[in-house]
Amino acid sequence: MATSSPVPPPQPATNKSQMNPLPPSVFTLPQTAQLEALYTIIRSKETSRGDFLFYSDRIIRLLVEEGLNHLPVVKKVVETPTGATYEGVGFEGKICGVSILRAGEAMEAGLREVCRSVRIGKILIQRDEETALPKLFYSKFPQDIASRYVLLLDPMLGKGRVPTGGSAIKAIEVLMENGVPEERIIFINLISAPEGLRNFCGKYPLVKVITGWIDQGLNEKAYIIPGLGDFGERR
Amino acid sequence: MTESDWEGLVVSSHTLNLKWIQESKTMPPKLDTTGLQIKKNTVLVSHGRPPWYDEAGNRISDAFVVGIAGGSGSGKTHVARQIVRSLGSIPSVIILSQDSFYKKHTPEELAIAHANLFDFDHPNSIDMDLFSACLKDLKECKQSNIPVYSFTTHQREEEGKYLYGAAIIITEGIMALQDSKLRDLYDLKLFVQCDSDLMLARRLKRDVAERGRSVDGILEQYLRFVKPAYDNYVLPSQRHADIIVPGSNNQVAIELICTHIQRKLHERANHFRPKMAIPHLYQSPSGKKFPESTLEELQLTVMPKTRQLEGIFTILRSKTSSRQDFIFFVDRLSTILVEHALQFLPYADKSVITPTEASFAGTTMSAKHVCGVSILRSGGALERGFRRVFNNVPMGSLLVQSHGEHGEPLMLHVMLPVCVRQRHLAEEAFVFLLDAQIGTGAAAFMAIRVLLDHGVKQEHIIFVTFLVARGGGISILRRAFPRIKIVTGGVDDAMQEGWLDSYQGQDGRQVWAMLPGLGQIGDRYYL
Question: Does B186 have pLDDT greater than 90?
Fold first, then answer.
């Protein structure tokens, strides 16, 4: 990213309650009471599907807005309808979304509300029962993905069997094989487990991770706790 | 009992000369009430209500209250309507009928009422406490939810009627001058004097024609209730009146009354928009100039300047942006703003169990009532963003327009959610007030005053806007309402004075534009 940018990019998160030290590539949303209230709704098992959809969409929008702030901008001077000139900034660089199936798809609507008509690629990664490692089953990207910034979407980081964070790591691997530089990938998720973050950031320290909340950890079934259950199922 | 229009019997040929009103430039907007459908218990709004408060946010004056008493059939309603018609130039008026305030009846009273044996002409049949409480609220420019009385069921209905915003209140009823609590509220007390035989003739004609009653029945009721009540209560109350109005051929009296009311209203008129728009250019009454406020003094909650926010503003400010882009980025910006404004709602601790059976100690929004109110037209541009954040709260609107001649804000339409209409709910409600920008601040000022009139607490008003002009009306707004929250996307420095050329026969007038500004957001979003 340009160093002489007219507006500085977001600063690393200061919330370190669940994870200290926080990897420098991790950014969280401001942990305000109103954000906590949103999470309280989507975490509760009593919450209806309609409310889960509405409130998780709101968090996704906030996360995408935060993620977009890492994209570069350039100085731009415009004339206003009152005839005055205004020194602002213009967005620089093309973007695309990539959702990790199945749950990542649920974040696409929120992405499109913020980035109108953005192109969206898809990746399906599942566990290979023979090797017990994540395996790419399917991928479909915009042809020029190598020249775009990629917003990688998966609601939960760290869920699932060992190695935790494995499918996100595999997704980055696939993106880089398709020519996307590591530093041009922004990974967006609602909740992450410290183990998952540690594995992921250890492997790809240049990928920006935008996470809404860092949870306590994983239970014996490898579910994030307190978490919110299976994101895809609840949508 | 209900009055009807006495057009059939009263010789009415009023051709008032309204020329003196039209010649007066400083009068409130001209309008023609002569063709107006004059309904009772409804706020009749003509060309809008001019400011009823001063630049400190305080009410300048109460509504002007006229009480009209007189016997049944004397022509009170007719006099009230003639006054409304003849006033010619009025912002908003209501004719409040005593009939709405009949007491709730017990089952025994109901049976008597249905047998036509209930004495509706006795002062005790009227709920004077409620009557005067409602009138007092209206006089003080607060809202009132008056009762609705049904003559078919002879009972007060469950749901009341919401009234707000009348500059003139005309109260009419046979007992209108009866109670001292009511009398204390009147600015002008009228008694309509009419001969008993004429009143009986009108009553007979009306009840036979409109209610299908028999002459015998009407006469029996007249002799049993109406006449004694008139002699014992109604007629003696005329000693409280300022003016005795004849029950027929009363055009001269009405003209005199209207002249008096006009003069009183004129004394109360106030014009303060020019001073508000660019406050530091004007002298305050004490002769001291308003210093330009610093950002800290204005206590604005300005969105953190991020790359995306700057980029969005650049697109919105550019005059070459397409309409499609403008709408999309307005919606996106308003969503971000409303999300940011949520910090001003109260939150309480709340623990939940997640589907993984873990517990999460979180928070929940704890306001009892939340609603949105947009200041039309340009405040409507924030509605989609508001709805993306609140899918289940009521939404109201206020239509404030600048007067074509002198630029004063005029309240044209008030449509508020129930949680604001009801005073006891309004006192706990949090209201998001939406408008595209605060320039002169005149519309914002008026909207905030409306909410305060309804009992909403200042600290519960969260004003959400794209842009504030630091050199504009915001400093007066902040001084008048120090505790409201103002959340804005950005702050512009200047207000530019300009002149709007005459348009469709209207005179040109002074306008103010923000610099660098966003242009006319309403036009760019809607047209």
Answer: yes
| A18 — pLDDT class (breaks 50, 70, 90) | low
Identity at A61, one-letter amino acid code: R
**Is the Cβ pair B354, A86 closer than 8 Å?**
no
Mean per-residue pLDDT, B317-338: 94
Whether A74 contacts chain B with CB within 8 A: no
* Chain B residues lying within 8 Å of A54, measured CB to CB: 391
Question: Tokens at residue B144, please?
Answer: 């009132």
Q: How close A32 comes to chain B (CA, Å)?
A: 8
B266 sits in the region (left: phi over 0; alpha: psi -120 to 50; else beta) called: alpha
**CATH code of the domain occupying B3-268:** 3.40.50.300
Say if residues B491 and B518 touch (Cβ distance below 8 Å): no
In terms of average pLDDT, the best of A22-26, B399-403, B454-458 is: B454-458
CA distance B468 to A21: 40
pLDDT at A165: 81
Q: What is the pTM of this model?
A: 0.86
End-to-end Cα separation, chain A, in angstroms: 35
The residue with greater pLDDT, B274 or B139, is B139
Cis peptide before B51 (omega within 30 of 0): no
> Where does the pLDDT of residue B121 fall: very low under 50, low under 70, confident under 90, or very high at 90 and above?
confident
Q: What's the CA gap between A218 and B505, in Å, rounded?
A: 73
Chain B environment of A217 (Cβ under 8 Å): none
Q: Write out pLDDT tens, residues B397-450.
A: 999 887 766 667 888 889 999 999 999 999 999 999 999 999 888 899 999 999
* Burial degree of B180 (CB within 10 A; 0-12, 13-18, 19+): exposed
Q: In this structure, are residues B15 and B211 in contact, taking their beta carbons and an 8 Å threshold?
A: no
Mutate to test the interface with A, among B338, B340, B360, B437 (most CBs of A within 10 A): B360
Q: Please report how many Cα atoms fall inside a 13 Å half-sphere around the Cα of residue B514, on the Cβ side.
A: 26
Give the one of B307, B319, B320 whose C-beta lies nearest to A89's C-beta. B307
Token readout for B188 is: 């002008």
Length of chain B: 527
Distance from the Cα of B345 to chain A's closest Cα (Å) equals: 8
Q: Which residues contact B498 (CB under 8 A, 6 or more apart)?
A: B510, B511, B512, B513
Which domains are delineated in chain A? 25-221 (3.40.50.2020)
**Does domain B303-349+358-526 fall into CATH 3.40.50.2020?**
yes
Q: Give the pLDDT band (50/70/90) at residue B278.
A: low
Taking only the tens place, the pLDDT of each residue in A69-83 is 999 999 999 999 888
Q: Which long-range contacts (CB under 8 A, 24 or more apart) does B160-164 make?
A: B161/B41, B161/B100, B162/B421, B163/B41, B163/B42, B163/B43, B163/B94, B163/B96, B163/B138, B164/B43, B164/B414, B164/B416, B164/B421, B164/B450, B164/B453, B164/B454
- Strand spans (E) along B166-310: 168-172, 188-193, 243-246, 300-302
Residue B266 confidence (pLDDT): 78
Average pLDDT over every residue of A106-124: 92
Distance CA B387, CA B394 (A): 10
ipTM of the complex: 0.90
Within A92-203, strands assigned E span: 95-101, 120-127, 134-140, 149-153, 156-157, 185-192
Q: Does any CB of chain A come closer than 8 Å to the CB of residue B313?
A: yes
Q: Under an 8 A CB cutoff, do A80 and B518 touch?
A: yes
pLDDT at B17 over 60: no
Which helix or strand (DSSP H or E) is residue B417 part of?
none
**Residue B15 in tokens:** 């051709």
Give the 3-state secondary structure of residue B327: helix
